[in-house]
Design a protein that fits this description.
With 227 residues, the protein is α+β, with helices and mostly antiparallel strands. 23% of the residues lie in helices and 29% in strands. The strands form 2 sheets. It has an 8-stranded antiparallel beta sheet.
């Protein structure tokens, strides 16, 4: 019998299935399931780099849901493999095979987040739609996968003034995962290279864009004034 996720009610189970369905069409189609203390964190990566020279930023989407308080897990599965249990509307069945995507091994900090200026949700939606149009316009006919990834990295990895310098992919993740609904101002927090954009329906967590080229040369040993 397949392993199951048990939710308080059918609505919560349906919510989890909706998130998985959206994640299925984005990025690598994987979803991370982390549960403890009655809370399930579902995380997907609409954008993530593949290879050393890929400038695509790491952009994660996270949805928090109530779940069976006895459940403790941390695994990554194919979003398409999550399915409604045939005999229990408040349960989802897990696929048999777990995955190991590289983005799941890069964890944002749990503490140390400092508040930043917020972003109006309508701005996120507008910038996402602009980016989607820009990607569509930039893709040539019959492109290869490498060409498509290069164009997506160029558009979604670009710092956007309307988003206070965050990669445009931040807006794409919020829009594509269904986090934008109604009028609200997203709260923004930063911790080191990470930024978290929090909306009522979920969180977008960004690291990047990836730096390329050489790093600055720093002196070693004791600091000295030039003689």
């Amino acid at each position: 019998m397949p392993q199951r996720l048990l939710f308080p009610d059918a609505h919560a189970a349906g919510d989890a299935l909706t998130f998985a369905g959206r994640a299925r069409a984005l990025g690598d189609g994987a979803v991370r399931l982390q549960a403890t203390g009655g809370t399930l964190a579902m995380t997907a990566a609409p954008l993530s780099p593949r290879g050393l020279f890929d400038a695509t930023p790491t952009v994660l989407g996270m949805r928090m849901l109530h779940v069976d308080p006895e459940l403790v897990c941390d695994l990554v599965v194919e979003a398409a493999g999550l399915s409604a249990a045939p005999d229990d509307a408040s349960a989802l069945e897990l696929p048999d095979t777990a995955l190991s995507p590289s983005w799941a091994g890069v964890a944002p900090p749990r503490a140390g987040w400092a508040a930043q200026p917020g972003i109006v949700a309508s701005t996120l939606a507008a910038r996402a739609q602009w980016g989607i149009a820009a990607v569509a316009e930039g893709v040539p006919q019959n492109p290869g996968e490498d060409a498509v990834r290069a164009i997506r990295a160029s558009v979604w990895g670009s710092p956007d003034d309307a988003l206070d310098g965050l990669p445009l992919g931040t807006a794409f993740a919020a829009f594509a995962l269904g986090f934008i609904g109604g009028e609200e101002e997203a709260r923004v927090f930063a911790a080191g290279p990470w930024t978290r954009v929090t909306l009522t329906r979920g969180h977008v967590i960004v690291r990047g864009p990836a730096r390329t080229g050489l790093t600055d040369v720093r002196a070693t040993g004791a600091n000295r004034e030039p003689g």
